[in-house]
Amino acid sequence: MEAGPERRWRVPPGHVAVKCAAATAVTALIVLYSHDPQFLFLAGAAAVGLNALTLRDLVAPVRLTADGEGITTVTGYAGRRRIPWDRVTAIRVDERRRLLLHTRMLEIETEDDLHLFSTFDLGADVHDVAEDLYRLRARTSG
Predict the structure, then answer these.
(1) Is residue 129 part of a domain?
(2) Could you tell me where the beta strands, DSSP code E, fall in 52-100?
(3) How many domains does the chain have?
(4) Residues spanned by the domain of 50
(5) 96 and 125 share a domain?
(6) 75 and 100 share a domain?
């Protein structure tokens, strides 16, 4: 079977830049206010978290790839997992409203796992990504 056109969805570079700036700002605050132990602890935890998220975005910016043969997702911190279309059991968008928040997640269910992606992971609306995945998957079964 031919792979066909490949689609890739990645973390937008602007989001990575904002995370880098936030990590730098929190690290600078640690240096400036290192005399306050409570602030140092909280800011240190925030800096570690922001730096970890930023590093993941730099190491594995492409979160999802799809072609005629299947999908490739990021697993763990920066690993990759190739999943053929016949192992994908469902593709759906989960929408939830809680208080003032409205979240949308793309869910890709396989025989043994569930992969979740947000708009921030994909750099695109999750409904549009789901439609692209439906089309690519239909080409293999048709």
Answers:
(1) yes
(2) 62-66, 70-75, 79-84, 88-98
(3) 2
(4) 13-59
(5) yes
(6) yes
**One digit per residue, pLDDT tens: the chain, 142 residues?**
455 688 999 999 999 999 889 888 888 888 887 777 888 888 888 888 888 988 999 999 999 999 999 999 998 888 999 999 999 999 999 999 988 888 999 999 998 999 999 999 999 999 999 999 999 998 776 5
Give the largest Cα separation in the chain, rounded.
66
Q: Characterize the bridge pairing of strands 79-84 and 70-75.
A: antiparallel
Residue 2: inside a domain, yes or no? no
Please indicate, yes or no, whether residues 92 and 71 belong to a single structural domain of this protein.
Answer: yes
CA distances from 117 to 45, 57, 120 (A): 25, 14, 8
Secondary-structure percent of the chain, ordered helix, strand, coil, rounded to 5: 45, 30, 20
C-alpha dihedral, 84 to 8 to 63 to 66, nearest 10°: -10
Q: Residue 92 maps to which CATH number?
A: 2.30.29
Decide: 5 and 110 in contact? Cβ < 8 Å. no
Give how far the C-alpha of residue 79 lies from the chain's centroid of Cα atoms, to the nearest Å. 13
